[in-house]
Structures are given as structure tokens and as C-alpha cells.
Write a structure and sequence with these properties.
It is a single chain. The protein is α/β, with parallel strands linked by helices and 228 residues long. It has one domain: Aldolase class I (TIM Barrel). Helices cover 44% and strands 15% of the residues. The protein has ten helices and eight strands. The protein has an eight-stranded parallel β-sheet. β5, α7 and β6 form a beta-alpha-beta unit. α4 runs parallel beside α6 and α7 packs parallel to α8. The longest helix is centred in the middle third of the chain and has 15 residues. The radius of gyration is 16 Å and the shape is globular.
């Protein structure tokens, strides 16, 4: 159980606010960037073509910018993921949320998966950019979740993340528990998908999560108890 103090401000700083739906427009990016800056949300997570706009909008704020790579299915070639990472960094990304190659993982090709992640890490590390690996835990058994965490750690990832939000139910306490146990200080953990209220967010914070992948930051924060 985490002993960290839980306040509206501390939870807001842990949030990665996602703006990733296909039909979102530049105005949606502007509106959500303003929301993050105004509410003290730690990070805005955007699509690759939104990177430069998001970075410009948030340059004078405390909110950083994350960009998805290989999203949402993870099946891009490693060279393409590496190029996506490089261009996102050039456009102002502070962090990268890459999707693991789930098909190769389920095929048992651990070496491919490890190299795929490492290709993105190699682009990110020289620039001090964090890499989060999306495992898509709803498609995996708990044993597979543990194995995927290990591969991400071996490849140099900074975080493991549950879900894209486009496949299955998203984060579950069971999957997050396995991730926290396996990572055990070697990488950080980001539950994502299905976190829509204060109580759910706080549950994962108390478990020991380091970030929260959300798309309704304002609703979650508005649900905090009085005086929190």
C-alpha cells in the first residue's frame, strides 16, 4: 500500500490526459491542452501529428507532452516505430507511449519484441525522453503480463502501461498488481483505460502506480472529496 499523500493536486500531476480518438481536431487539442494547464495535469498524450501543436501550446506550462508510437495496434515495423519516435522528439515530445508488438509477443518471439522496444528506446534515451510500453493487458494472461514487463525492462523502457483504450477493458487491479510486482522499482507502472472517477484513480495510486492514463481528468478531479 502506498503511503504517499493523496490530494487533488498530487493526483492531477500523475495524470496522462489522452487525446487520441481518430476524429479529434486541432481545436480539441487546444481545448484539452488548456484544460491540462489550468488543472495542473502532469501530461498531455497526443497523436503524432499533434505533437508540434501540443508542445507549442504547453511550452510555458508545467504540463509535458507524450506522443504515441505504433498506435494503436503495435504492428508497425521497428524501423517505422523508431522513425516515429525520432520525429516526435524533434517536434517537442517529452515522452513516448509505444505499443508493444502484441502479435509477435503472442507468437513467442520474445527477441523480436525486445528489439522492437529497444529501437524506440535508442531514439529516446540520448534526449532524456521517457519510454512507456503499452502491453495491452486485456489480451494477455497474467503470466504473459509478467513476461511482457520483463521484456520491456530488458529493452530499457522506463514504464509499462496497461492499455491503449482501443482493445478490451483497460486496466484491472489484477494486471496492475502483477506489473507492480514484476517491475519492483526497475520500471514504473501506468494503469490506463477505464479510469473514469476519483475512487478508481485513487485505488491505483494506493497500489503504487506512478501515472494514470485518463481522458476525463476534469471529471475525475471534480469527484475528489471536499478539502482533498
Amino acid at each position: 500500500m502506498s503511503e504517499r499523500e493523496i490530494t487533488k493536486e498530487s493526483v492531477a500531476k500523475m495524470m496522462d490526459h489522452a487525446v487520441l480518438k481518430p476524429a479529434m481536431t486541432d481545436d480539441d487539442i487546444r481545448r484539452n491542452a488548456a484544460l491540462c494547464a489550468a488543472r495542473g495535469v502532469g501530461n498531455l498524450c497526443v497523436r503524432p501529428t499533434d505533437t508540434a501543436l501540443a508542445a507549442t501550446l504547453l511550452k510555458d506550462s508545467a504540463t509535458t507532452v507524450a506522443v504515441v508510437v505504433g498506435f494503436p495496434h503495435g504492428a508497425n515495423r521497428s524501423e517505422v516505430k523508431a522513425l516515429e519516435a525520432r520525429l516526435a522528439i524533434e517536434d517537442g515530445a517529452d515522452e513516448l507511449d509505444m505499443v508493444m508488438n502484441i502479435g509477435k509477443f503472442l507468437s513467442g518471439d520474445d527477441d523480436y519484441v525486445r528489439r522492437d522496444i529497444a529501437a524506440v528506446v535508442a531514439e529516446a534515451k540520448p534526449h532524456g525522453v521517457l519510454v512507456k510500453v503499452i502491453l495491452e493487458t486485456a489480451l494477455l494472461t497474467l503470466d504473459q503480463v509478467a513476461r511482457a514487463c520483463e521484456l520491456a525492462i530488458q529493452a530499457g523502457a522506463d514504464f509499462v502501461k496497461t492499455s491503449t483504450g482501443f482493445n478490451g477493458e483497460g486496466a484491472t487491479p489484477e494486471a496492475v498488481g502483477v506489473m507492480l510486482e514484476r517491475c519492483a522499482g526497475r520500471a514504473k507502472v501506468k494503469p490506463s483505460g477505464g479510469i473514469r472517477d476519483w475512487e478508481t484513480a485513487v485505488r491505483y495510486v494506493r497500489m503504487g502506480a506512478d501515472r494514470l492514463g485518463v481522458s476525463a481528468s476534469d471529471k475525475i478531479l471534480d469527484g475528489a472529496p471536499e478539502g482533498c
